[in-house]
Amino acid sequence: MSMQSIAWQLMSEEEYAAFMEERIEWITPRIRKTFRYNADWSHLDEWEDAVWSYAIVNQSEQHDGDLEEGVRVIATIMTDNAVNKDEIEAAFRGELVKGCSCEHDCCGHYFGGLSNVTQLSRLEWRITAAYSRNY
């Protein structure tokens, strides 16, 4: 566990929010309420703003084999207040899904989405998304 993680755990939610407000760009996630359309047309589904925000603290990519095999995106985020795993998953399930609406197989587009959510501390989460090509 990093020293930064330990410091955040010792702060109250109010102290943490004040401390981070000046330092990080906060993002309010949009939660996809319906899943009537595939990923390429998800903007036609119903969405609503979450009542919490997050900031991306760290992000990296891991490639499986060569670039055509797949990619895993791993991000560490901090939330502005305590949320549970279901809320995190609901927010990122719709945001991270990727697909296409090609009328044929083997188009080569990436598809995939949220694959894992791990809580690292009270306000810190690791979000993993996995994508592979349609071959």
Structure, described:
The chain is an alpha+beta fold. It has one domain. The chain is 21% helix and 33% strand. It contains three helices and six strands; from the N terminus they run H-H-E-E-E-E-H-E-E. A four-stranded antiparallel beta sheet has the order 3-4-6-5, covered by helices on one side. The chain has a two-stranded antiparallel sheet with strand order 1-2. Strand 3 and strand 4 form a beta hairpin. The longest helix has 12 residues. The protein starts with a helix and ends with a strand. The model has no long low-confidence stretch (mean pLDDT 84).
| Helicity range | 10-25%
So what's the oligomer here?
single chain
SSE pattern, N- to C-terminal? HHEEEEHEE
Q: Give the overall form.
A: globular
Number of strands: 6
